[in-house]
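[job 0412] stage=fold_complex status=start
inputs:
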Amino acid sequence: MLDIIQGPWHWAVSGLLISGVMFALLYAGKEFGVSANLRTMCSMAGAGKHADFFKIDWKAQRWNLLFVGGAVIGGFLATTFLTNPEPVAISSATENWLTTLSIDTPSSGEQGGGYVPHELFSLTEMGWKQLAFLLVGGFLIGFGTRWAGGCTSGHAISGLSNLQVPSLVAVVGFFIGGLLMTWLVLPALLGIYV
Amino acid sequence: MRTLIYLLIGVVFGIVMTKSEAVSWFRIQEMFRFESFHMYGIIGTAVVTGIIGVALSKRMGWKTIDGDSLKLNPKDFTVPRYLLGGTIFGLGWAMTGACPGPMFTLLGQGIWTIGLVILAATAGTYVYGVLRPRLPH
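[job 0412] stage=fold_complex status=done
writing structure:
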């Protein structure tokens, strides 16, 4: 039984549980939307002095900060007690592509194992290039989600579940940006980086 | 007591994000390269069951635990903010392999450098808030 839980979960089980999370929050009278927390964090830090957008009662958003705190704990619990014995089994086509970019694949041993590429995320390999990469990527996420009014949870899951056209437009945008990055920008960037 | 429930739902979310491998940069690249069904299966299942559940909730008049109607507020329809903002978010998503939920879950996994992504994302939200009056919506 434990091996089934420790291995990667089937996409259908995972997808069902994600909509379960959404309905649990709806039942509690809340909306599933993780990126709203970034606005709350700005408000808590006093950003309301600089922009009206942050003049919100952040205390009303405490539930969502707790949710995110839970997401941190969940990550810890899942990797500590339900450690996947196998590396992430991505398709061989993607592995070949990564190899042409000189990025170690998850199955290429000690260094490549884990959920993220060590070339970009390892603390020991952190230089100014990695630093700039992560800061620019993060900035795009924070700026983009707030402009679009939501991220994957708010638009792709909640919004599409409620058949909201704005969310469909946002998801189209997510894919325009994602495809541009994966097919054009990332290969060029990694050429400089690795 | 209610606060603990939110924490608990978050814990479940973090575990699902990890075990589904949706937190993996590799899985996100694979998705945007259309080389596996995995991520589409996850999002697709969540959306299809979500659509069915939301439709049922409206038909049957499901209420929250406090007896209110479910919080399913439709958004005003415009295009620029969703398309432009969405595209910028998509660039960041594919670059770091993380969206706002998985960012926090990766931190819990001990990927400390994701903290830089979280900090920068908060800064990005701040800059949006300041520029907001001058951006098309």
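[job 0412] summary: Chain B touches chain A through 116 residues (CB under 8 Å).
[job 0412] exit 0
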